[in-house]
Amino acid sequence: MRQLARFLLVGGSNTAITLALFVLLQQWLAPAVAYTLVFALGLAYTTAMTAQVVFGTRLTARSALLYAGWYLLVYAVGLVVVQALHSSWQPSAVVTAVLTVAVTAPLNFLGGHVLFGSTPGAGTAPHPDPVATPGTIPPHDDLTRSPA
């Protein structure tokens, strides 16, 4: 559940930052250029933050490329959702956005979980040594060891 909360925080901050930059950059750049630049910056931000903050794992070049590819695939799925909604029905912009995000956000979380969250110990702090922690029972093999 904590990963989901962190995912929502990273996604929300990415949306807020890229929206503000998109609006700002349009003062000097064509909208398409501003969108492309902001999308690339947002992709870099969300890739790094998803690995490190959401799933607590180290970002590698391989995992970054895989996640970026997954993110672009999910972007294409979102375009299909938008096209499907508008070919059969003319929903409002808010309904379109909500339904598109309802499809794409879980897919982005799933991709992040598969790429970053499936390694042992991902997203968790290392466990302390039970022998060194007062009030804990040492592992079985430590019980049979003779004192040094």
From TrEMBL:
Residues 125-148 are annotated as: Disordered. The chain crosses the membrane at residues 7-26, 32-55, 64-85, 91-110. It comes from the Bacteria. Residues 6-112 form the GtrA/DPMS transmembrane domain. Pfam families: GtrA_DPMS_TM. It is a multi-pass membrane protein. It is found in: Membrane. Residues 139-148 have a biased composition (Basic and acidic residues). The keyword Glycoprotein does not apply. Keywords: Membrane, Transmembrane, Transmembrane helix. This is GtrA family protein. It comes from Geodermatophilus maliterrae.
